[in-house]
Amino acid sequence: MDYPRLEPDSSDTTYGRPESPQKQAGNHVLDPQDKAAWCKVGNERERAFVAAHGAVLGLTINPEKAIDIYVPDLRHTSGQLADLKWCGTVFGIYPDCVTFNGKDMLRYSRRYPDLLIYFWVGWDAPLAGIWRVPFAELAKREATYPLHYYLNRTEFRHPDDPYYGVMDIYGNATCSYIIPLEYPLVQVGLTQGRLPL
């Protein structure tokens, strides 16, 4: 797949500034830099996903999330951990792609190399649905995926921090990989219309 040159996302702003635009997140309107609010919405989406698709896909909420909100979201009936990526709108000029945070690529490589990733895609058919990929397959192809850098997330961690360059001091991703909805991603479920929440 040929990728056009990526431009910085000028709609993104630095955490807490008054000019920070609000983003529509389903029924929610949130500051794109408010990590705590996005984590809360993420928990709602995880519950909605499991309620709608968990039985068919053999997934439940990871019980460890009751103690630590940053552990992987889901657990398969086999015991394998999985993480959910909610994709409610097309990312810019990439209608056939999803995004995957650079900080997650680094974190999962170190802590959860056997993780399954589920992308819950909610834009128009034929791409709407649930896509699954073993994280190891994404990691193997990391160098082939273009990176999108968020223009105003510039408050980087200290250069000695292992997350320097991929996560700001507020815990937000500073970049995302652009990943096409094609092999090694496999569509494992369908959705009807726009996603809830």
Question: Any overview of this molecule?
Answer:
With 197 residues, the chain is an alpha+beta fold. It has a domain at 24-143 and 180-189. The chain is 20% helix and 25% strand. The protein is built from three helices and eleven strands. The protein has helices at 35-57, 102-111, 135-140; strands at 23-25, 28-30, 59-61, 74-76, 81-87, 97-101, 116-121, 129-134, 147-149, 175-180, 186-189. It has a six-stranded mixed sheet. The two termini are 32 Å apart. Residues 1-27 have low confidence and may be disordered.
Instruction: Give the end-to-end Cα distance, rounded to a whole number of Å.
Output: 32 Å
Uncertain residue ranges: 1-27
- The largest sheet has its strands arranged as 3-4-5-7-8-11
Spell the H/E element sequence.
Answer: EEHEEEEHEEHEEE
Averaged pLDDT: 77
Helical element count? 3
Multimer state: single chain
Task: Output the structural class.
Answer: alpha+beta
Strand tally is 11
Computed Rg: 16 Å
Q: What gross morphology would you assign?
A: globular
Largest β sheet strand count, sense and barrel closure: 6 strands, mixed
Q: Hey, roughly how much beta strand do the residues contain?
A: 15-25%
Q: Helical proportion?
A: 10-25%
Summarize, please.
The chain is an alpha+beta fold and 197 residues long.
Which features characterize this protein?
three-stranded antiparallel beta sheet; 25% strand; 197 residues; alpha+beta
Structural topology:
Elements: E1 23-25, E2 28-30, H1 35-57, E3 59-61, E4 74-76, E5 81-87, E6 97-101, H2 102-111, E7 116-121, E8 129-134, H3 135-140, E9 147-149, E10 175-180, E11 186-189
Parallel strand pairs: 5-7
Antiparallel strand pairs: 1-2, 3-4, 4-5, 6-10, 7-8, 8-11, 9-10
